[in-house]
Write a structure and sequence with these properties.
The complex is a heterodimer of chains A (271) and B (76). Chain A is of the alpha/beta class and 271 residues long. Chain A contains ten helices and ten strands. In chain A, the strands form three sheets. Chain A has a five-stranded parallel β-sheet with strand order 5-4-3-10-9. In chain A, strands 6-7-8 form a three-stranded parallel β-sheet, covered by helices on one side. A two-stranded antiparallel sheet of chain A has the order 1-2. In chain A, helix 8 links the parallel strand 9 and strand 10. The N and C termini of chain A lie far apart (45 Å). Helices cover 9% and strands 37% of the residues of chain B. Chain B contains one helix and five strands; from the N terminus they run E-E-H-E-E-E. Classes of the chains: A alpha/beta (271), B mainly beta (76). The interface between A and B is medium-sized, with 36 and 26 residues. Strand 4 of chain A pairs antiparallel with strand 5 of chain B.
Chain lengths: 271, 76
């Protein structure tokens, strides 16, 4: 970032503002999902526009009856992006461990996203099952970024257990409702020594901004980009939203007041 | 039976939930080649155990083996 001529350069603006999870450093604070896109070229273009460096992916059976189906890796390079394999569709610790062991063999990395969900219509994180799965995965050598409820007690337990990032939901997956419980998200942020990401619920750019203004380390977005009328434009909007929120958080907002304060001085008025 | 030695024995495997017949003695590497899959893009579980990619050529498939062959797809 280069300051305009004649304008005071803010040292804070120049400072490296990257974040680190499990020893891996990222400049982008937007993590994106790769699901729900209409096709792989759109997936690739939207991810590029989002500026994300980490993307979530799922592990599924190869379709043996149609082997010419294009593969995600051909469009979203694992060399360029850090793949974060998820456990979507797993309902038990055993299934999560099996799935991520396969992911580790397919991709050769340990950083994973654990999510164990309850049934529709809430798809709410099943915290009892999540805690069991997190324990099993950590024992198996995985570095676990964990999707969880906005429950500070559960979040603390997951952190103490050794999870490398806490990822509470802002709102139900795919709901686009934004952060519904900012107080609890803030409490989780304040108590956590590992990165906190709002995962799920973002609907549009200002939801991402809002989450970042609360002090999250990053935001994870999938549906809001993939299902927008123009996913590429929305990806760019999310990038701007996350950056705006992060800058505003660092800048420190003015306190909310219940009265007006004039922006223009009252001295020197003509009479 | 005559010519018995010329008849290739077949074994039955379950691959991604489907039952298939293959020649006895087939290795995992050969099966993956027959399925036209790129070994660099898949991972294999055999009877609930991960098979390290480096050992595919040494793994001889046995009748009743249950294989899961997976890859990465889009997900949230």
């Amino acid at each position: 970032m280069k300051a305009l001529d004649g304008i005071v350069q803010d040292e804070a603006l120049q400072r490296d503002d990257s974040w680190t999870v499990a020893g891996r450093k990222f400049s982008s604070r937007l993590v994106v999902g790769t699901g729900k896109y209409k096709d792989l070229p759109t997936t690739a273009a939207a991810i590029e526009a989002s500026g994300a460096e980490m993307v979530t992916v799922a592990v599924r059976r190869v379709n043996l009856s149609d082997r010419n189906t294009p593969m995600l890796q051909d469009y979203v390079s694992p060399q360029r992006y850090t793949y974060l394999p998820n456990t979507a569709g797993c309902f038990t610790a055993d299934e999560a461990v099996r799935t991520l062991r396969l992911a580790r063999e397919a991709g050769g990395w340990n950083l994973v996203k654990l999510e164990v969900l309850g049934p529709a219509p809430t798809l709410y994180p099943d915290m009892a099952a999540t805690l069991l799965a997190a324990e099993a995965l950590i024992k198996d050598g995985f570095e676990v970024m964990v999707y969880c409820s906005d429950d500070p007690i559960a979040a603390k337990r997951l952190e103490d257990m050794g999870c490398v990032a806490i990822m509470p939901l802002g709102a139900p997956i795919g709901s686009g409702l934004g952060v519904q419980n900012p107080l609890m998200i803030q409490m989780i942020i304040e108590q956590s020594k590992v990165p906190v990401l709002v995962d799920a619920g973002v609907g549009t750019a200002y939801d991402a901004t809002f989450a970042m203004e609360l002090g999250c380390d990053a935001v994870l977005v999938n549906s809001a980009i993939a299902l927008a009328n123009d996913p590429i434009l929305m990806a760019r909007a999310m990038k701007a939203g996350v950056e705006a929120g992060r800058l505003a958080y660092r800048a420190g907002r003015i306190p909310r007041k219940g009265f007006a304060s004039a922006s223009t001085p009252m001295t020197g008025l003509i009479s | 039976m005559r010519h018995m030695s010329n008849i290739v024995e077949q074994i039955s495997l379950t691959v991604n939930g489907d039952s298939i017949q293959v020649e006895a003695g087939l290795t995992l590497a050969q099966l993956i080649a027959q399925l036209e899959l790129d070994t660099r893009k898949v991972a294999v579980e055999r009877n609930l155990e991960i098979v390290p990619r480096s050992t595919y050529a040494a793994v001889r498939l046995e009748s009743g083996d249950r294989l899961e062959i997976v890859h990465f797809i889009g997900g949230g």
